[in-house]
Sequence to fold (78 residues):
Amino acid sequence: MDIICPRCLEPWDSSYVQHEMTPEERQDLQTGKGCSCACRANPPSSSEKTAGASAALQLRGEDLDGAAALTDNFGLSH
Ligand SMILES: [Zn+2]
Fold:
């Protein structure tokens, strides 16, 4: 299942986020600072989905699988 970047709505596989990203990259993604250089170089998405993606990450904290499940429940990952 995917985590959605709350800044650009890019989907990231939750296991990739947990195991491949550095702690700094993971924190930036989770806190909405951006998931990549390209993400940070562009203005944040104005889609209403950003609020749901951000809420899923904040509600679940370190539980990225839980956040991915919640993101899926919100219908954001489609
Ligand atoms: Zn992003």
Observations:
- The beta strands are 2-4, 11-13.
- Residues 49-60 form the longest helix (12 residues).
- Residues 5, 7-8, 10, 34-35, 39 surround zinc ion (CB under 6 Å).
